[in-house]
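thought: fold this chain, then report.
action: predict
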Amino acid sequence: MALTVQSILDNVNSYIGDTSTDRITAAERLQYITEATVWLQEELQNDLQIATYALNYYDNVHTYKVTTSIASLLEGADLRRSEEDQTQTFAHKSSKELAEEIGQNFTESSWAIERRDNNSYLVVNHQSKYSPLTIAGFDAIDSGGGTWALDATNGDGLNLTVDTNEKKQGSGSLNFDISVAQTANNKVILKNTTLTALDLSDYEDLGAFVFWVYLPTVTYFSSITLYWGTTSSAYWSATVTTDASGSSFSGGWNRVAVKWEDATKTSAPDAASITYAQLDINYTASQGDDTDFRFDDLTLIRPEKLTFSYLSWYVGETSTADATKLVAFAATTNVPYFSGQYDQYKYPVAHKAASLVFQSMRLSNEMQFELGEALRTLGNVKTIHPSSKSVETKSFKVRGINFNRRRN
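observation:
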């Protein structure tokens, strides 16, 4: 039977010698038990707090926004490959050091947590077992076979050229301008109807098309749509409104990932014979004429599945039957996070909560006694489950010399 908050409350009431709610309300007791549980988590940071997140890692896509998917992320603990591929350990680095190593093309498998702009990101540097398949490098108009062209009948693009100065890889990118008076469709269309046939059947519903787009401004930008298929009437299509990391698009270069599994199929395209591709930049009717949009490096990548372990700061859940995660206890039927794993943690939590009760009542001696009991009982159990907090490692490298470069 699951340990509930009621069991902790029974101890609290015993320690303070009072079950009435005339001075300390039921809601305040729940508040103090919540605070005491948070204190326990901060002190221990052990396996009982660990949760896991399945990450689809795309080779060379390093940053993954996890603000929503890992809402309870306190600290990272570990990153692992699937069981049959666990031949190496991922090093935990600071986000600053990892950014430098990614920039210098180091291949050491490593990870970091980066927090910025009120968001959390998992940053990964790893040479995946699945290498990217280049669809078009966009170093030339005929990149990938066939010819890339702007559709001036249905879109606003014009002046398609190869830009050898501003690019993300290879010798160039495809550069173009927009003239909004050209159509009323509020988009640019770049397409190739005669690609050299590609057999992408191994990637169907698994891979993601990853590419770069340069946006001079994003004020009226709305999305990017990718089409791929056998013909212009038999294809898959998908639209994205964020970059590959899950963040909003910004002015300049943006990495984009379009997942095959998110696509809509039109007619009966054949994944074993892909000869058609189209990229649309979509915007609102407020968009004006602009110059120097760019596409570069269209690839298809199959994800490698990694498991990220992290310390969660959820204090518990509503009940075992309705396991809604909680950041604060709201009922005595709620279940603390350690229930069923190590119920004895209720004793330091109850003593800590009792000390908070006495503190609120300005009873200093009683508060100090209960705090001492909380620390004593915590010390008794602290060594049973060692801390799982991952410590950042530091690589000592001679700047400018790279002995372990990623091969292109």
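thought: worth noting. Helices lie at 5-16, 26-44, 95-103, 346-360, 364-382.
final: tokens above.
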